[in-house]
Amino acid sequence: MSTSPVVILCGFMATGKTTVGRALAEMLGVPFIDTDELVEARADASISEIFAREGEARFRDLEAEVCATLAGSPSGAVIATGGGALLRDETFRHLEKLGTMVLLEASLVEVLRRASTMPARPKMERSFDAVRKLHDERKPTYHRVTWRVDTTHRRAEEAAFEIAEQLRRAPDRGTVLHMRAGARPVPGRTARLGEDGLTRVVVGRGVLARLGDWMKDSGLNGPVFVMVSRTVAGHYGTAAKAALDAAGLRNKFIELDDKEEAKTFEQAEGLLYELVDAGATRDGVVVALGGGVTGDVAGFVAATYMRGLALVQVPTTLLAQVDSSIGGKVGVNHPRAKNLLGAVHQPQLVLSDVDVLSTLPDREVSSGMAEVIKTAIIGSPELFARLEKAGKKMPLRDGAFLEECVAACARVKARIVEEDPYEQGLRRVLNLGHTVGHALEAALGYGVLTHGEAVAIGMLAALRLSVTRGLATASFETTTRKLIEACGLRTRVSEVGDDFLQAMNLDKKRRASGLSFVLPVKPGEVRVVDDVSENEVVAAFQSTQKG
Ligand code: NAD
Ligand code: MG
After folding, report:
1. How far apart (Å, rounded) are the C-alpha atoms in residues 284 and 342?
2. In terms of Cα–Cα distance, which of 249, 247, 248, 268 is closest to 257?
3. What's the CA gap between 146 and 136, in Å, rounded?
4. Ligand 1 binding pocket includes 451 (Cβ within 6 Å)
5. C-alpha–C-alpha distance, residues 447 and 276, integer Å
6. Ligand nearest to the backbone CA of 454
7. CA-CA distance, 382 to 79, in Å (whole number)?
8. Is the pLDDT of residue 3 over 80?
9. Is any ligand 1 atom within 6 A of the Cβ of residue 264?
């Protein structure tokens, strides 16, 4: 049974919304709708006339009205929107409910070239600087759309075909996000021009079976080196191998030890030897199949071998799916501090199959939920509300619930990383709960607390600090504590001594003025401060431990 899809094409001027839209509508056998035309019909005036007589605001009102009336149209359609349609949040939300949104993109040089052959319209700029300025202003609203198709070097039919193909695979598609954080071009990769630097994130159920297809679809055809622990290989090695074989990708499985104590330079060196022995060349692709330790170590190996091989993250823990697999931070521990040695090496593809979480021990699921709560606090009030709604009966084994969590977190993380791939500013918010968390992990010895348990306790300390400083309400703190408990996470640890303070001193997040700290304000909002003293942290931490 297939219902016809509704596709909404958005994007800047001259990115191909109308031409690609017409071609796509024909391929899908559905009508083509142009919101600009509907606005003109409704106002009984041309767009230029509306702008001239009544101004842009009136035009945006009409546009919002038109998009609202499209709701409830039963059958399929391809809808092309105006270049500024997404500026109105109301319009965005109408469109989002209608169907699948696709952002068309093109280089600004190409936009100008195309615009020069088009009739003038309001807001159509002709000079490079003006175009760039307008585009920069609108970029954040465009980037709310996560499925992006670059049309710079493609004919309208080609772009339409790609969209139609991906829609055809809709049942396996799950959520697909695209993030541009400067991934390096890969030698031997059949790069789609204009798409370099793009990380594709696929979240869904059963998607592991399509690993090879997704890799090829992302231009990764080279020999594959799958790095995987014995535990994870026992569960998913066969499925991963079958998926690669089916796509005709040559592959070799290399075993690693995914215990935190084995996240070492020595192990990375051993894996590098394996690549040398296997004769890996620059077209090789490293697949990290496993949890955060595997992703960090295998990613570090990928970043270092011949100055960087293409990397695919196939995270198999909740923590890795919601957090560590996205963003390109890879590395190993040093005896003196966690993650001291590393690199930023963006994966080309992240494939999160939430079905693999079914074999994950309860404690690991709970641990991942700490990062889910963290991500909700940092950037998703909707996710926070969703978790609150689940209340005491957090459905930690429900695939649909987990898919929602992973997709929502991937969106938040991708958005943050995209803006700040090298952690020069914004990305620091992701460290919520981590200053205290890392110190606790180090002080108690790795392995006593899971990473998530440590982060949860760290978040509570940060929240107590926020409340003490009058930044957050006590009820926000209470709600968060309840969420943490509902996820089966502990909120207290046995005695921690001087090691704890020492460990905090060594933390990378230290600034001259004091410790750098991420303080929660309310769901979806945090603040980074640089003036927290160790005493303040210890006092906050100790008071959360009392109750
Ligand atoms: P992990 O990688 O140690 O995995 C936990 C355990 O679960 C392992 O024993 C593993 O073999 C097993 N396992 C994995 N997948 C399984 C599955 N599907 N079924 C059954 N068992 C499975 O732990 P983690 O919590 O995923 O990762 C923690 C690490 O991630 C830490 O080293 C941390 O520093 C790192 N991390 C990195 C980033 C980053 O941005 N790079 C972010 C957060 C955390
Ligand atoms: Mg973390």
Report:
1. 20
2. 268
3. 17
4. yes
5. 32
6. 2
7. 27
8. no
9. no
Ligand nearest to the CA of 373: 2
3-state secondary structure of 417: helix
| Ligand 1 touching residue 356 (CB < 6 A) | yes
Query: Is residue 260 in contact with ligand 1, taking CB distance under 6 Å?
Result: yes
371 alpha carbon – ligand 1 mean position (Å): 12
* pLDDT bracket for residue 418 (50, 70, 90): confident
Question: What is the per-residue pLDDT across 262-284, written as a single tens digit (0 to 9) for each?
Answer: 999 999 999 999 999 999 999 99
Specify the pTM: 0.77
Q: What is the structure's pLDDT at 359?
A: 97
pLDDT score of 244 more than 90:
yes
pLDDT at 406 over 50: yes
Tell me if 318 CB under 6 Å of ligand 1. Answer: no
pLDDT at residue 184 greater than cutoff 70:
no
Nearest to 329 by CA among 221, 200, 421: 421
C-alpha–C-alpha distance, residues 216 and 235, integer Å:
24
Closest-CA residue, ligand 1 atom 17, reads 360
Residues 188 and 509: their CA atoms lie apart, in Å, by 38
* Residue 186 confidence (pLDDT) above 60: no
423 lines ligand 1 (CB under 6 A): no
- Nearest ligand, CA 230: 1
Mean pLDDT of the chain: 88
Q: Is the CB–ligand 1 distance for residue 413 below 6 Å?
A: no
SS (H, E, C) 168-219: HCHHHHCEEEEEECCCCCCCCCCCCCCCCCEEEEEEECCHHHHHHHHHHHCC
pLDDT band, very low/low/confident/very high, at 458 (cuts 50, 70, 90): very high
The answer to whether 431 and 393 have CB atoms below 8 angstroms apart is no
**Is residue 210 pLDDT above 70, yes or no?**
yes
Ligand 2 centroid to Cα of residue 433, in Å, is 8
